[in-house]
Each structure stands twice: as C-alpha cells, then as structure tokens.
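ZP: hey, is the zinc ion complex queued? I don't see it on the tracker
AM: it wasn't, my bad. submitting now with these inputs:
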Amino acid sequence: MEKLSVNRQRLQSDIEALAEIGRSEDYGIYRMAFSEADMQGRAWFKNKAEEVGLDFYQDGAANLHARYQWDDKRPSVMMGSHIDTVPAAGHLDGALGVIVALECLRCIKESNLNIDYPLEAVAFSDEEGRFGGMLGSQAITGMLSPEKIIKASDLNGVSLIDAMKNVGLDAMDALHARRNPESIHAYLELHIEQGPMLDDMEISIGNVDAIAGLFKWDVTLTGTPNHAGTTPMDMRKDAFMGLSEFASQLQRILDENGSPRSVATIGRVEISPGAANVIPGKVEFSLEARDTDPSVLDDLANAFRKSLSAIARKHELMFEFRVLSEITPVKSDPGIVESIENVCKSLRVPFLQMASGAAHDAQMLAKITRAGMIFVPSKDGRSHSIAEWTDMDDIEKGANVALNTMYRIAGGQL
Ligand SMILES: [Zn+2]
C-alpha cells in the first residue's frame, strides 16, 4: 500500500495562522465557542477548505465539515476535533486535530488515489464547554434535547440560544445535526496528549485504546464544632481529622482496588466554621476518580464508601455523599487501534498504546461509530495554558500516522 506524507510546511503555516486568531496580549488564545474569535476561526477553516476545492458544509449545530468525494450515499471516514478554546489557551488543543484532518483530505485529494469512502474533516462546536462541552459531537450523536439547549448557559449567564443568535445561528437547529450512524464508517481524532507520558518517555505517538470514565462526588463529613482550647483531643468529633485520614488512604485504596490507570483526586475542600480556634465541625470536599474500566470504577466507588464509613465511625462523624457526575469509559475500536499500530510499524514510528485521561469528541462519536485516537506529546504535559507545546517533528509524525490510517480505512481496510 502506498505511503503518503503530509506537507510539513503547509501544516506548520496553518498551525501558526490559526494560533493568531483570538490571541491576546498575554499570548493566550481566547476562542471560546461562538465568540467573535471563534467565528473568525470558523471563517478561516471554511476558507481553507474551499481554497483547495473541498466541499464545505455547516450542520445545524454549527459543526464545520470539509468533504471530499461526498455523495450522500456512502458512509464517510471522519476525522475531527475542535477549534474553540478555553480562555488563555494554548495553540494546539483541538486546533491541531482540525488542521491535521484538513491536511489529510488535501493530501489524499492531491494524491488522486482511489478510495472507497468519502472523507470528512470536522470542527466540532463548543468542545471546551463554554456551554457545557461537546455540544457539536453530542448533536451529531443525537444526545441533545430541546431542554438541554434551552438550559445551556455560560458562566456569565449568557444563554446558548442568545450566544448563537448573536452570531446569526439558531441553537434549536442543533437538533437537526443528528447523523444516522450508518452515514459514518469510522471516526479518527488526532489530539495532543495533555499529559506527561509521551514526553517523558520520548515517544512521538500515542495509540489511544480507551478514554477514561469518571465519577465525581461531593462528600460531607459532619462532627461537632467546639472550643479548640477546652476540648481534650480524645473527646473531639473533628471532621477534618476524618478527611485527612481518608486522604492519606487514597493511594492504598487505588493500589488495592484500582488498575494501573486509576487516578483519584480531592480537588476542593471546605472546612467549617473555618477558624483557627474552633474544631472543624464539618468538611465538604470533592472526590473524583477515573479509570478506563467500568468495573474498576465500581470497585473504587465501593472501596471509597467503605473507607469513608469506617473513618466516620472511628471519629464519630456523619458521612454523606452526593454523586455529581458519572461518565462511562469508552473503548476505542480494536480494528482502528490495530490499523494505527500497523501504520506506525510501516512508517517505523515508535508508539505507546495508552489511555486518554481527558475527555474528547471521540468519546461521543464512539457511541455511534468505530472510533480511535492518535496522541502526540505535550511538552512537560502542559495544556490549557500558553505553555502548551509540541515539537514540529512529533506533529509531522502524528499527522503522517493519521493520514495513512485514514487512507487505509478509506481504502476499505477496516
Ligand atoms: Zn481538546
């Protein structure tokens, strides 16, 4: 099978051009969904697609599709990501995946090679969550409802409906963006790792076999607030002592009940009443755990519950928890994982089979089609920051793996 190569210079100049859109004086990029900068980024993408003779289509959720050999009959091989950003973002999260997808279509078009399936490069709307996140990929997979659209608003209270209206779009049209699963043959996404593993191991490519799921709890331990001077240590019901004992057991609980991929975090703690001379009567904290295996997540949830109950009994505290969110882990398609592996071997590019700890549009697409992801290293694991950086050599390798995987799949090898 023919080996294709991306045009490194074109890729680099596209990355640089898109990075200028929404860039502020602090060097951070502010391309939040449906902001002026996001709209400029969208116009840039449309222009790039049309410039090389690709069809351009915008669906009801304002997802942008560049298409090659589209015929409305055969299912497509889709590659995508997002061009919206968090505030003060780096230049690669999402943007790189969209640019690489566009480059793959350009290269296959230029090569004039035969393919069995049409190709799509997609920029999904609001992946980063100004209005909750993954709006576009949820729309395509049929996970939106009118209620969800009406209720969605950003941190400043601007509703999704108003934000879209403001740029000439009707949010309710997102309900029409739903795709028949049979219209998509496979989905690929290239993304920066946003974690330290590839950079640390000096490996250019991550072949993502699963995207971690998670549960997020709000936990409360209640004891008795009392005088810090007059209450003897053995007569206290100190809620913070309960939390600190639990926190010190986190690693052990993961070792005994989790997998090597398990992580858990207590990211927010509120102690009340919160005075130096009062014994903490109540602590409220967040507990978040992630893994790629749903049964491991169940085991962890049980182990956390047991440990917290035991600690509460020991310190004479009341233990309550509320599940704030639960996201099921998603497995990549084994056929796509194998395709990526074969391409890496044929290009002689070392790769690491790994999980994604962060959520991506691929997670949504995996609900309706075969999906897989390719990671490239993030320098020092930094992301959602101007420190975000990937070496151009790694980007080129990743783009070539994406290109050849897309070409093989579109040529019927899946
Ligand atoms: Zn992203």
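AM: back. The domain at 213-327 is CATH 3.30.70.360 (Alpha-Beta Plaits).
ZP: great, adding it to the tracker
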